Each structure stands twice: as C-alpha cells, then as structure tokens.
Amino acid sequence: MRHVAETNVSAARDDAAASAPAPAAAAPARPVAAPGRLARALSFRNISAVYVFVALFVLFSIWVPDTFLAGDTWRALISSQAVTAMLAIGLVIALSAGAFDLSIGATLGFGHIVVAWLLVERGVPIAPAIALTIVAGAVVGLLNGLLVVRARIDSFIATLGVSSVVLAMIAWISSSQQILGLSNAFQKIGTTEILGLTLPVYLMLGVALVTWYVLECTPIGRHVYATGGNIEAARLAGVRTSAVVVVALVCCGAIAAFSGLLVSSALGTGDPTIGPAYLLPAFSAAFLGSTQFRGGRFNVWGTVLAVYVLATGVKGLQLAGAPIWIPDLFNGVALLLAVGLAKYQGTARRAGAVKRLLRFEKGE
Amino acid sequence: MSRLLEVRHLSKTFPGLRALDDVSLSVGAGEIVALVGQNGSGKSTLVKVLAGLHEPDPGSEVALGTGPDGSAVRLHFIHQDLGLVDGLSTIENLDLDRMHGRRSLLPAPRRAERRHAEQLVADFGASFDVTRPIAELSAAERTIVAIARALDGWEHPGNVLVLDEPTAALHGDEVQKLFVAVREVAERGAGVIFISHRLDEVVELADRVVVLRDGRLIADVARGEFDHDELVRLIAGAIDTADTAHGRPEGRDAVLRARRVRGATIRDLDLDLHAGEVVGVSGVLGSGREELASILFGCGAGEVGELLVEGRALRARTPRHAIDAGIAYVPGDRHRQGAVMTMTARENMTLPRMRALRRVLGRLDGGAERAEAQRWFERVKVHPPDPERTLALFSGGNQQKVVLAKWLRNDPKVLLMDEPTQGVDVGAKAGIFELVAGAAAAGAGVLISSSDAKELAVICDRVLVMRDGEVAAEIGKADLSEARLVAAALGRARTNGSRVVGDEARG
Fold this sequence. Notes:
heterodimer, A: mainly alpha, ABC transporter involved in vitamin B12 uptake, BtuC, B: alpha/beta
C-alpha cells in the first residue's frame, strides 16, 4: 500500500500540469494508472523535442559524420547557445506571467553596448559595470511593466514600442559604431573554460536552476502562473497581479541585459547591431519548450532543451553546407510548429485519453 | 408533425468521464423541447455535439430533417455566453452571420440596417440604442440581441433553435417577453430546444421535457405528464429541497459593518452582517444587486465610507487586504473571475493562501498540498475526485464546488457570493447550500446576491431587496417567499412598466 501511494505521489509530481486523470478516475482504482503515467511521460507528445533531437542526431551523424560528431563541434555548440538559452529563460518568466516581451532582443543589445561603453568609454571597473548593466536591463523591464500595468497598454504593443526606444538608445550611446578594446579580464568571463565548456554555460544553468525553483516549487511561481492563466481570477484570489507582471518583466529585462553582457565578453567588442537577431530564437525556444514536460505550460527545462534541439538542427544543416539563411528559416518554422503543436496538444490529449479509455473498456 | 432533428444512440466519452451514454431524442416542427438535468448530466455536452464542437463517439447518429422548402434544416444556437462581439454594435452583430455574397464589397446600407435592427429589437418589447457597442448594453439587452440574431434571416421557419440557459440573467418581466418570442418561433414551425435550470420556466414553456442524469436519458415526458416536483424527482433522484436554513440567533456581533457603500448605481448603502447569518440581496438587473459584493471585496468600481470586519477597520481596499481581513468572495462569472481554468483544481484551491504550505527557502510543500486538496475534494464531494485534473475539465457545478472549497479553506469570517448557483444543477445546488449553511454555522456572515428569488427564499435568514441603488425593503425569515421578493423587487417598475429596460441600460 505504501509503495502504491508513493508511486502516485511521484507520478502526480511529474504530471502535475498534464493532469490527465486515470482512466478509471471515478473508481478508486488508481494503481492501474501508474504504467499509463510512465508511458505518457515518455510519449512523443510530452517529450517530442527529445525524439526530434535523436532523429536530428542520427540524420547528421550519417550525413556529415566527420564534422558533426567531432567533440569540438559540440563544445562550441553548447557554449555558443548558452546566451540564447539564458535569454529564453528570462522570456519564460515574462510569458508565464502572461506578458509578451518583444523587447528582449533590444534589451540584450542594450546590455551588450552599455557594458562595453561603461568599461571602455567611461572607465568603470568591471564589477560595478556589470552591476550597472544588469540594473539598466531591469530599468527597461520596469518601464515595460509600468506601461503594461499602469498605462494599461497591451504587453505586445508596450514592449514593441520600448524595443524601438531601446534600439535608438543603443545607437545614441554607441554612435552606431563598434566599441573596441574590452580588457582581457572582462573577456575572461565569456571565454574561461571549465571542463571544456565556457563559463556562460554554467551561468545559464545557474539562472535556469533558480528560475525553475521559483516558478515550479514556490508560492511565488504559483502566483506567476495564475496571473498568466487568468489575471482577473488571480487578482480576486488575492494575487498582487500588477506586482507579478512588473517583477516578471523586470527579471526578464535584467536577464536579457546580463545575456548581452556575456556576448560582449565573448566577442571582446560592443556591436550595436546584435540584439534583434536573438529575439526569434528565444521565442521559438520558449514556445517549443512549453510543449515539453508540463503539458502546455511555459517552463525552464523544456525551453533549455528546445534551444539546444533547434541549435543542433541549425548546426547540422550548416555543416552539411546549407546556405546562410537556414537558421532564420529553421527558427521561424520551429516557432510556428511549436505554437501549432501547443494548440493541438490540448485537444489531442483529450482525444488520446478517450481512445485509451474506449480500448480499456472493450478489453474488460 | 415532421421531424426536424433526430438523435440516435448518441454517446460521448471524455478522459475519465462518460459524458453522454446512448441518448436518443427528436425534435419536431413547432415543438418546444426542454432539456433538463444536473450539472455534469451531459446537457452542455449534448449541445456541443449538436453544434459540432465535439465529435461524438463512433456509432452515434445525428440526423437533420428537411424544411418545408426542401432545404436542409439548420440548427441555431444561443449559448450561455451569447456569442456576441462586445466591441460591435447591435446592428453589426445582427449582420455578422448574414451572407452577402458579392455585395459584401459594397458599402453597407446603413439606414436600412438600422431600421431593421430597431424593428427586431422592438419585436421583443425593448428599445435601446442599436448603434451602441454590445459591451455597453445590459445582460438582458444582450440576450435579446442574441435571440434576434438567431431568428433573423431564416429562409424558412422549419429550423431548430437551441437556447442554452437563455434566462440566466433575466428577471420576471423579461423572461415572459422571451417566452412570448419563443412560442412565436415555435408556432411558425420551428423546433426549439430549451435548456434551463429553472424548472418553473420549463413547466410553463415546454411541450416535452427530456431529463438527463449522469449522461443517460432518464425520461422523455410530454406536457401534462410532469409537474415541478415530478421533474425534481426525475432530475435528482430523490433530493430534499426543503428548507436548509435554520433559525439563527439574532443580535449577535456584526462581523461585517459597512457604511456609505457607493457604486455605479448603489447610493449610500449601509449594511450589517452578523456572525452565523445568511443575508440575501435581491433585485432586478441594474438595481445595484450585482455590484454590492464586488464593491465590499474591493474589486468592483465603487467605494465604501467605512468597512469594519469584526470591529477592525479595513483601509486599503484590494482583494488581498480583504482576504487577509477574513473576507471571501465567490464571483458570478466563474470563467472570467472565479477560477483559473487552465490550472488544476488543487492549484486553484490553494491559490489564495499558501502560507501554511510554505517551507524553508519558500518551497511549497507539494505532498501536504496534495493531501489537503484531496481532503477538501472529499468534503465538498467533487466529481470526479481527482484534484490533479485541469479545472476546465470539470462540469460547472463541480467547478463551483472547487471555488467554494478554495474560500472555505480560509475559514472566512465573511463570505460574499454572487449568483452562487449560476449554471449549477439541483443536486449540486443542494450541496452548495449545505456548504453555505455549514460556513454560517461555523460563524461566518454570508451575503448572497442572486437573481434567483426562490433560492434566496430557501437559504436566507433575511433578504435585502434593492431598487435603484437603494435597499427598498428588508424581508425577514418569517415573511420570506419567492413571490414577496419578486414583488418587492419590481415595486416601482410595476407602476411605470416601460422603465424596466431603460433602467438597466443606465445600470
């Protein structure tokens, strides 16, 4: 009996959002459900990205084995995508609270240029420069948040407008010129290798871990998801929804600026044009990630996984000699597929459960 | 009498739930068929299958007849949410489902459309500005627009009109107007499927009543073979609808003391709510009845001059402060305000107060939370008994029980409720009344604002009847009856009948 109870508890934890009940939910025949839950946890629908990853891996291993299977390729891939993954994690926070943040690309570029400007043009020491950069990103997020909750502008429009403003500030600060001459000490942040992977990978995993903990394991996270699910109902249940939205956007902005800082460090320059290119990959990953693990809820680990699955596909195609426009195509199609899949998922999950139930009844 | 719609052996299965089980029914020309049953009995599912929103299980059959002119019968639906576009005017909403063909590129004939819309609205005895956005109309006016749209533009009268809880937001007079229109439609040769929880309406209107229980067809009875009590018995099995209210001690302390409540229509209302007391708020739409609870909770547009909970003044007026002071609020609109439908029942239940479940580093104790959700599920008897299910997958009555459990879990001192049994069946209603009575017995002061006078007459110790933003009458336990409440609510309107609709437009 004790064993059964434990199985149920852990299964429930894995499947909290999927919530698909046991076929015989009406009767107290819960143990029957245990293998079903495992099968569902491993089903294509729940972890499709893992299967897609395996498929891509096999495909490119056969197609371009020499370059694709090289250890250096993978080390470079993991390190180069750490920034995108971190940005996408920030985006997950905003999306979970129901706020679209279209300014993350620009905010990343802003952090990127601000840190270079502070270090090179203003001679600020490294530690305060980092702190100020993060604060700058948080201020952009605060502006987004206040526009959404105070001025009551839809987050889509508010962040689109802020994005343009931030791009203008980038051009103003940098005079649209690259900022060269970042010190070696600063460049170490982006280039130091530990166990073959650069420091940003570990920083990204740290941010992911903290974000995951707050979103999934604490009452704060519950408030965030409730706000994203139904802001009015959440407010009436006592959730301070305005604060949730503002704080989510502030975190998103701060993480975006920090991501930009890591790019400066890795490149050794401040380039005023890099920001917007990160927007689409982050959105693709966040939406594709929402179809993984948690049955339609935006979540951190699904998003990190999605970043690397997308990057693997792009990398493989590049190694196979695909033209330069492939990444844009790949990310765009992935975003559309992910959102389409998420919409389909809700109906498909029910239909699947019904099919199992009908089969189950016939078997009886 | 020709068959317009024939349903044979219809089944529909959801995960963990057989929503419909081998249901057969038919609708003939000129016939008004009422569909009744508890929440979760399968009524909504049946409507959704007819509408094509759900695919029925294999083996089911839904056949449509042909109209007098040989063309296929069409089904027209008016759902609970009416399906109107809030931002568009009455004229534009009426125009939405009309096929224009090639003319859709030409400028719309504005004057003719306007006259047409005004005529349609006038057919229902209403008069309001048809150019105003739907969102600015009252609930009653919106219902009228929805029905007018469904009836407008039928090529032949032999179609089927499906009305899903059309009277939920209407009061006596307006319900009668609606019934006149529905009978008119049937006399022209249409079939009508009418879904309602108000059995009096069913008895009055229906030619035939189809009763569903647990997804199965329990009875299909013709006019004259049923009365109110018989229907209750068929719907619920045997449910005791007798008084659940008990004489409660008078003169106890006021748990809630509100002075100078003001809102869009409410003017300087004073209210004392005593521990252990169930107070009803009645009145027609626009009388201020629907505002009061939300203003007290701090989420509605309005202000309170002085608000004391157990003698302590509540200064900041936000839902969070109200909850911390011991106030609970069950809103009337479950989907928009009552709960987060995309989250699980467990997550909804613990949302207002997770402090007791918080551990080191702010971690939420998942095991304790699940156990508590399970306990509450058993206590309020939710079906199916799985708190890990997404709330949207429960039926209306069970969703409402989850919402109630969410608040009762806080041991509220004051329980405010708007339309607590809206879209809830006889059986679940009894369960909800029991929970309300239990909360009152535990010392809470309960305020129920409802458009259902009979329900208020049954559960309340006293009822405040509102009219034009003021308490027009207070009726004590001894004098409570549905008739008295309705009469008191309509007091002024009756001397000047044409004002009813106009009043609501302003409300």
